[in-house]
Specification:
Low-confidence stretches of chain B: 6-39, 297-313
Number of helices of chain B: 19
Number of strands of chain A: 0
Number of domains of chain A: 1
Order of helices and strands of chain B: HHHEEHHHEHHEEHHHHHHHHHHH
Order of helices and strands of chain A: HHHHHHHHHHHH
Oligomer: heterodimer
Distance between the termini of chain A: 69 Å
Mean pLDDT of chain B: 84
Radius of gyration of chain B: 22 Å
Shape of chain A: globular
CATH topology of chain A: Cytochrome Bc1 Complex, Chain D, domain 2
Strand content of chain B: under 5%
CATH architecture of chain A: Orthogonal Bundle
Number of strands of chain B: 5
Chain lengths: 250, 431
């Protein structure tokens, strides 16, 4: 009975609808035809004069509005601190951060325009994505490094700069929540080997250089396994004092 | 093989390779620190000429100081390094005289008499007038000196032997001054002077023969830029570059602004516009366009050589066209529209775009794989850009969509294979 009523609820039949069935296909065809005409006519002749239209070059990797995707590597850029995004755009353009597809795209764009991109993506809404992959190896060592650091080796806890909720802080320190472990690990390795550099003092280079490969794997896994805080927006400038001097954070 | 035959063969081989290296040099440059405001109201004649010659592109390394040299050009035969041309008396050209500078541009001899490799485009610069040479020298001499010792080239034997250049020069270098064509307008001759001289356009836009030289007839006929894997389109052939259908203002806008209603610059040409051509005066941009259009008129429509025959251009595989259309409708249509007309100048037209239909499919493949932003210029200060698709499309999908755009809306390019698409994944992006 239960099944029958369910089926009935999705396939309601009324006696008087029988007559309408003859009309519907014609109406449907007409509507479809109009829709097709509409779609053709809707194709604009000129591009919108917006940053969204100009930023289409970023869309296949970072999502239409920078919200990220389920890709296991490319990070979200929406809602990250504008200063952080601007620094990264300049670093890619000038070769301090090496990733050929990005270096290539930005080679002939200037600071004023890169700032517009940074400001645009910083103000785009953050959309939660399902984790792109199952995170494994998020053990105690990773947690210890993220929450306590290792004072004897000069490794501050991640949360001391990136925030207790891992949301980052304006203007220059990005959130770590919601990033893919592969991306986080790749960045730490890049800092260590010098293919990702930042303004001096390059604190992340110093920190990453003190981490072993195993530690990089574990802390990346632990960070990626954390539930997303709400909201994900970075903290206001000055919300906390960072423990070491970083050229990217005034 | 006797000794003289060996020498002759190695000379030919070496000159071919060095010429290829020269072509690579011209295009494979990294952006120097931005030192000039494109909207700068006043610019000395010497500075203007330095822009037209694009000296800074090769004589600066990334992160280094403009004109201080040290730019590395990796080649299969070793690495070349550009010299310091700032006014430093010890490491630059501060102790040169204007006579020595002109002799270098005009004859391809360094100050100490050694023969320059054609990475320095002296075969074009030989046409620069003494007056322009002096203005250029004056500008370089007035630059702040930068003490940076020139790095020695690291060419392997036998390419490290500069005397090999004797053979190359006999075959491919003609010292001379620019000779205006009396029957043509002042504007035409100005354009010709800039294109043939400081602009050194032929360095990339000419077909090279099996010996690594280019004949007068093949000048501006287009060619693949070695190692870069970009195809410099013909500037003469209607079929390959379509300049015959472009208006003078379309060409001038593209050169100076980096974009136009007909298409945008990309790959190595983005750098040329950014570092050099955006500084053109409107008059000079127009003069260049007038001259380039005349190349078609004086030589007729030059058909590029084909290796797949005309029949291959007609019939494109239906399966690939269908698969390509699916990719197009998912990935491309929102900007380039279902009719391929795009939304120019922001999103360039694909229909009737000669860059897409050329015999070589290298450029459209690379655009799909790598995307690109045209350079930011005074005339196009906020460029629109195309995303890369290398990471989301398979080789088969890339080949299919490129086949589709090469064969739709009246375009008449040939089909592209997955293998060709795959080969372009390994093409260098910047270095």
């Amino acid at each position: 009975m239960q099944t029958q009523s369910s089926l009935q609820s999705i396939t309601p039949v009324h006696p008087d609808e029988f007559g309408r069935l003859h009309v519907r296909p014609i109406g449907f065809i007409l509507a479809a035809a109009l829709l097709c005409v509409g779609v053709q006519a809707e194709e604009p002749a000129s591009a919108p004069d917006t940053m969204a239209a100009r930023a289409q070059g970023c869309s296949t990797c970072h999502g239409p509005n920078g919200e990220g995707s389920n890709d296991p590597y490319f990070p979200r850029i929406a809602g990250k601190p504008a200063g952080y995004l601007f620094n990264q755009l300049r670093n890619f353009r000038d070769g301090r951060r090496s990733y050929p597809p990005m270096n290539y795209l930005l080679a002939y764009l200037h600071d004023d325009y890169l700032k517009e991109f940074a400001d645009y993506f910083a103000t785009q809404p953050i959309i939660d994505h399902a984790p792109a992959m199952t995170v494994s190896g998020a053990g105690a060592l990773g947690q210890h490094l993220a929450l306590q650091g290792d004072r004897t080796r000069g490794i501050p806890a991640c949360i001391l700069c990136h925030g207790p909720r891992l949301t980052g802080i304006e203007p220059g320190i990005p959130g770590l929540a919601g990033l893919n472990p592969r991306y986080i690990a790749a960045q730490l390795v890049s800092w260590r080997v010098g293919t990702r550099r930042a303004a001096e003092p390059d604190c992340m280079h110093s920190i990453a250089s003190r981490l072993s490969e195993a530690e990089i794997g574990q802390v990346s896994a632990w960070l990626a396994a954390q539930p997303l805080p709400s909201p994900l927006t970075p903290a206001a400038m000055g919300a906390w004092k960072t423990p070491i001097a970083c050229g990217s954070q005034p | 093989m006797n000794r003289s035959a060996y020498t002759a063969v190695s000379t030919v081989v070496a000159t071919v390779l060095l010429f290829l290296a020269g072509r690579t040099w011209c295009a494979q440059v990294e952006p120097p620190a931005v030192t000039h405001n494109p909207n700068a109201p006043q610019m000395s004649r010497g500075e203007y000429l330095a822009h037209l010659g694009d000296c800074v592109a090769c004589h600066s390394k990334q992160g280094g100081q403009a004109f201080a040299g040290g730019f590395a050009i990796p080649t299969p035969f070793g690495t070349l390094y550009s010299p310091n041309i700032t006014s430093d008396k010890v490491t630059g050209i501060g102790s040169w005289t204007a006579d020595e500078f002109y002799r270098m541009l005009h004859t391809g001899h360094a100050r100490d008499g050694t023969l320059l490799y054609p990475a320095m485009p002296f075969p074009a610069y030989t046409k620069v007038t003494r007056e322009d040479s002096d203005a250029l020298f004056g500008y370089l001499h007035a630059l702040a000196p930068v003490r940076q010792v020139n790095r020695s080239n690291e060419l392997r034997f036998p390419y490290d032997n500069r005397s090999l250049m004797f053979g190359w020069r006999v075959l491919y270098f003609t010292e001379g001054t620019f000779e205006p064509v009396p029957a043509q307008s002042v504007q035409f001759n100005r354009g010709a002077y800039l294109v043939q001289g400081l602009g050194h356009c032929a360095s990339c836009h000419s077909t090279i023969n099996a010996l690594g030289g280019s004949s007068e007839d093949s000048a501006f006929a287009g060619g693949l830029i070695p190692l870069q894997n970009w195809y410099a389109p013909s500037l003469t052939s209607n079929q390959e570059s379509g300049l015959g259908n472009w208006s003078v203002s379309d060409i001038a806008e593209l050169l100076k602004g980096g974009t136009s209603m007909r298409g945008a610059v990309y790959g190595p040409m983005a750098e040329v516009t950014h570092d050099s051509l955006q500084y053109l005066s409107d008059d000079d941009a127009t003069a260049i366009a007038v001259y380039l259009k005349s190349l078609l008129g004086s030589r007729g429509v030059v058909q590029p050589p084909t290796d797949d025959g005309p029949s291959a251009r007609g019939a494109l595989p239906l399966a690939a066209m269908s698969a390509g259309r699916s990719v197009y409708e998912k990935r491309c249509v929102s900007c380039h529209r279902s009719d391929g007309k795009g939304m120019a100048p922001a999103y360039p037209p694909l229909a009737g775009n000669p860059s897409i239909q050329m015999e070589s499919s290298v450029n459209p493949l690379r655009m799909v794989l790598n995307g690109g932003y045209p350079p930011q210029t005074g005339d196009n200060p906020r460029p629109y850009g195309m995303p890369p698709f290398a990471q989301v499309l398979s080789d088969g999908e890339v080949a299919a969509v490129v086949t589709y755009i090469r064969g739709s809306w009246g375009n008449h390019g040939s089909a592209v294979t997955s293998l060709e698409a795959n080969a372009m994944r390994a093409a260098p992006l910047l270095d």
